[in-house]
Amino acid sequence: MRTGNISLVKKMNKQLVLKLIRDQHPISRADIAKTTGLNKATVSALVDELIAEHFVHESGIGESTGGRRPLMLRFNADAGSLVGVELGVNYLYAVLTNLNADILWEQRRSFRPSEGQEAIIGEMIELIEAAIRRAPATPYGVMGIGIGVPGVVHTESGTVIFAPNLRWDDVALAAVLQKQWPERPVIVENEAKLAALGEKWFGAGNEFAHFVYISAGIGIGAGVVLHHQLYRGVSGLAGEIGHHTIDVNGIRCSCGNIGCWEMYASEKYIERRLSEEGRSEWLDDRFSIAAMALAAESDEQLARILEEAGRYLGVGLLQVIYAYNPEAVIIGGPLAQAGEYVIGPARQEVRKRILVKKESEPLIIASKLKEKSCAIGAAASVLETVVLPPEYAAV
Amino acid sequence: MRTGNISLVKKMNKQLVLKLIRDQHPISRADIAKTTGLNKATVSALVDELIAEHFVHESGIGESTGGRRPLMLRFNADAGSLVGVELGVNYLYAVLTNLNADILWEQRRSFRPSEGQEAIIGEMIELIEAAIRRAPATPYGVMGIGIGVPGVVHTESGTVIFAPNLRWDDVALAAVLQKQWPERPVIVENEAKLAALGEKWFGAGNEFAHFVYISAGIGIGAGVVLHHQLYRGVSGLAGEIGHHTIDVNGIRCSCGNIGCWEMYASEKYIERRLSEEGRSEWLDDRFSIAAMALAAESDEQLARILEEAGRYLGVGLLQVIYAYNPEAVIIGGPLAQAGEYVIGPARQEVRKRILVKKESEPLIIASKLKEKSCAIGAAASVLETVVLPPEYAAV
DNA sequence: ACCATTAGTTTATATGATAAACTAACTGAA
DNA sequence: TTCAGTTAGTTTATCATATAAACTAATGGT
């Protein structure tokens, strides 16, 4: 049971100070004391520890405001490195970053979905090894490894419970990787959830306490951030909203159900419509929403198909809004590459259909990290675990 | 900004101890120390304060387990009283309870929906006055007043923003009541959210960290409890899931949208089906699901209509499950009076359609507080505000 | 030149948790 | 019946941490 011992107070305050420095650097001790309400002496003591731990450094002398000039503090993004990996349906994408999510090295590899689990995990290990080799000399070195997977994950054990597009079932991914790097934290999590973390720490979600990241690609997944924290639910299924019904008499979904949202507001829908409209020339191996959006500028038919998907996206967003009532909805994943072709109609549809107008309408915006959301989020998950754990929360 | 000063630690520990006593009484100081991990001296000091504040009392000597016999502690449910009011579409229901939600007095009054705001609020004030007059002599007296309303509420100001069934818009209810009782906290909140609180503190939600209470009556509303706390969203709209679309090509809803869940899994649906099937003899003033369920035992047609509604309830529950991934879903409101006629088919539908079987399937159970959920929840909201605030949570 | 102002440190103090020693009260077995 | 062992609860001394206030340091403006 979490009792409040005195060292908890210290932890909380130290976290608070570190977070403030990260958010508002350069900042002086005096300013920290003013904005947090902590005593100057307390701030000085905590800052000294943070400096000793290499997470903060003094970055020179600031401007005087009529008295002694302040010593400015900065978050030390080079205290260590992070490895983030996105496991896609037919590719692996890895990044090595500093603590500020600046990409120091990245690599993308394709594989055929037909390759077995073993082979794919083997490639992943190689990729992570390559990343670790490139890590610069820093006080902490590589602080951990985060992996985003397209499926439902049991986080405690790092097991991939269910990943239909990979045809994985109960794969103990974290255990395998942990054996490879016993000394580093390994985090396995759903790709949309990690992308949400990425946007929260380094992207479009920065300023919101409650937001939902929508990953619209082959299917639809979501990462839900409530009270500044990722919400997972009891078994990590929270946010699997691609299977929200939007039409009980609609099309059968691969999940066995009928009329799921992801049959209407995803690449699946666009592909179906392209072939229905006799535009199957777009349906080759290199199918890309980005290219389609480009072509749509002078091709009304393509534009219309994208807009249809956007409208369906909006229909489903209503349910997201009613469920979570977020400040913002961030649209990411391949579909977001169509930009305003998709997001505009979605926004319109929401405005048209929503119940209580002003109060409840969230911002609907595009992902900032784009195709890097997941990998950067995977790195961010390490940051959050090791360096900046969320505020001490309800039990 | 919430800094960790030392008195925060004390508050946390005191809350922890009080909660433990409430949950597990009778319990000894030694047991509290063991289960919380707090030092015996700390526990004794905190318990002494709680006793001085009348929230705890010693209830005699317990059984020895081979040594000195323990002094058993109990939560003092009679330290004060709570007033909870449910504002229905055409009735008011008020309860006066002790801190254990034991009903000391209750009263129900009907009104015609055509009566104006003023008149209704006037009746409410009379009712609350009557409740306060009945309050027994206790150390704290009436500790506050909670009001549940069928609509969207801005909690900080206690304003009813939007209550379509009452035709209320921006009514500053809390302000009016607060003027009447300036010294007592007045809480105005959505009825489903309060009912969820009621079930959390005194009903079927007690053992769950994450659960959703579904209030199925004329419409569908929900109260969402995540991490043991009511989740409201940015503007109190979280849980307005009655307007989740389940059929884009379906029936027009009063909200302007099409195919909303509450057109299919509510009293509205049952009334529609009754008249479609030529059973409009049930549609008089005293229409009641409970009576219908009773008659359904020997009337297949009625049973079938209830089951249909139950199946639609299940279809919509999938979306609740995918959104929140709760441990349990508690079905309340008038529709729940049909018991297994509705809940059974809902359960089946969920089981049939759900994506990841075992892991994600929540318990689907009936409300325990029945038609009293909201009023008791309103009382509980006072308890939570004044006596047992939620664990100190994320910022 | 020096006073008012701001930045940051040092020192003394208060709060509250804790460990250890203590008193109190009981059980069970010799 | 007695006493060793055990459990409950209190008292006392100590420790960790935040804070207030006094201090030193450094600066700008008159």
From TrEMBL, chains A, B:
Signal peptide annotation: none
UniProt-listed InterPro entries: ATPase_NBD, ROK, WH-like_DNA-bd_sf, WH_DNA-bd_sf
Entry-linked Pfam families: ROK (PF00480)
Keyword Kinase: no
Keywords assigned by UniProt, alphabetized: Carbohydrate metabolism, Xylose metabolism
Function text: Transcriptional repressor of xylose-utilizing enzymes.
Matches recorded under PANTHER family: BIFUNCTIONAL UDP-N-ACETYLGLUCOSAMINE 2-EPIMERASE_N-ACETYLMANNOSAMINE KINASE, ROK (REPRESSOR, ORF, KINASE) FAMILY
Recorded family membership: Belongs to the ROK (NagC/XylR) family.
Name of protein: ROK family protein
